């Protein structure tokens, strides 16, 4: 069994947790999330803690304990504090603007790229080159930021593209040419 899965999860005061029909519902000030749990995993909810245990001791699915524990912990953190990712647009003429729930990206193509933000994601654009995405769902936030980065992935020769904040890009030397 997972080391991390053995520890109980502490519940925050503003967060309400309900477990019915293998579906865990977590509600908090930043929103509400649901998780469909595996049949080999059971949840025990006490006053201030939540424990993840295997449904039968001889189960071969004990690897799911740590994964389920981390998903639940991320849900509780998300509905109480939220998650945030920042993307930087690096390149000449690369800009972003926000129109309601639509992100318009100019990434060096002949046309602007329009990306509709899904429900549960909020965005803000600072200085036309910094995009800040916020959500209570960590998985959805990572998926959306990866989809935006896929429009112009970072390239190692000139260092241009859509980069995550703090991402180190290993630069390569160009062609040396003939003598």
Walk me through what this model shows:
InterPro entries: Ribosomal_uL6-like (IPR000702), Ribosomal_uL6-like_a/b-dom_sf (IPR036789), Ribosomal_uL6_a/b-dom (IPR020040), Ribosomal_uL6_bac-type (IPR019906), Ribosomal_uL6_CS (IPR002358). Belongs to the universal ribosomal protein uL6 family. Pfam families: Ribosomal_L6 (PF00347). This is Large ribosomal subunit protein uL6 alpha-beta domain-containing protein. The structure is a single chain. The protein is an alpha+beta fold and 179 residues long. The chain has 2 domains: 9-81, Ribosomal protein L6 (Outer Surface Protein A, domain 3, Alpha-Beta Complex), CATH 3.90.930.12; 83-164, Ribosomal protein L6 (Outer Surface Protein A, domain 3, Alpha-Beta Complex), CATH 3.90.930. The protein has 2 helices and 13 strands; from the N terminus they run E-E-E-E-E-E-H-E-E-E-E-E-E-H-E. It has a 4-stranded antiparallel β-sheet with strand order 11-12-7-13, covered by helices on one side. It has a 3-stranded antiparallel β-sheet with strand order 1-6-5, covered by helices on one side. Strands 2-3-4 form a 3-stranded antiparallel β-sheet, with helices on one face. The longest helix is centred in the middle third of the chain and has 18 residues, at 63-80. The protein is elongated. 20% of the residues are buried. The mean pLDDT is 89.
């Amino acid at each position: 069994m997972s080391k991390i899965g053995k520890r109980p999860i502490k519940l925050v005061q503003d967060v309400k947790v309900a477990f019915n029909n293998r579906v865990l519902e977590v509600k908090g000030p930043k929103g509400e999330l649901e998780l469909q749990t595996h049949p080999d995993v059971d949840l025990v909810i006490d006053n201030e803690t939540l424990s993840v245990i295997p449904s039968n001791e001889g189960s071969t699915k004990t690897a799911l304990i740590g994964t389920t524990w981390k998903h639940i912990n991320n849900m509780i953190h998300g509905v109480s504090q939220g998650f945030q990712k920042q993307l930087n647009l690096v390149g000449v003429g690369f800009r972003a603007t926000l129109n309601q729930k639509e992100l318009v990206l100019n990434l060096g193509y002949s046309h602007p790229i329009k990306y509709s933000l899904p429900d549960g994601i909020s965005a803000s654009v600072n200085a036309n080159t910094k995009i800040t995405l916020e959500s209570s769902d960590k998985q959805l936030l990572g998926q959306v930021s990866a989809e935006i980065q896929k429009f112009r992935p970072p390239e190692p020769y000139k260092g241009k593209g859509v980069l995550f904040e703090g991402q180190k890009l290993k630069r390569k030397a160009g062609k040396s040419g003939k003598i």
